[in-house]
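@channel sequence for tomorrow's demo:
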Amino acid sequence: MAITRTDCVLLLTDLQEKGIDVKKQLESVMRNDITPDVIKFINDNRQMDVARFYEKLRKSYNDKKSKLYKEIVLGDEMDASATVVTTLSALLTQITLFSKSVDDKDMFFKHARADEICLVLAKYFREKDITTCNKLLKIIKSDLKALEMCK
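structure tokens (generated this afternoon):
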């Protein structure tokens, strides 16, 4: 996941400043890699922007307004080579639009992998190699699933 140990420490420190006991989670982050329990704790006490973003995508799909969520989730199960570039492009557009509603744009862009999407799309447009696009879509799918499991 694009959420780093430093991000977790920052988010947990922010929660601590609001009076929430985060000692157990901070110890866990310092000892190990980031666990789903830590992400869930953070998200339960301060919903992460990236989690809100993916939730919005899912709701748009459920309301039949958008198929982007389905294209991310089923991307590796269907023939994604035909749609992966448009899926990533659409995702980047949605990330940009959603960023207007977040306070910490840098962290949101990082967690949503906006930089990585830009890089793989630029590589595709230069080299016409879809491989890195497919790999990134799989990573984004696992990010989305991990955040949904932490709910």
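heads up for whoever presents: DSSP finds nine helices and no strands in the chain.
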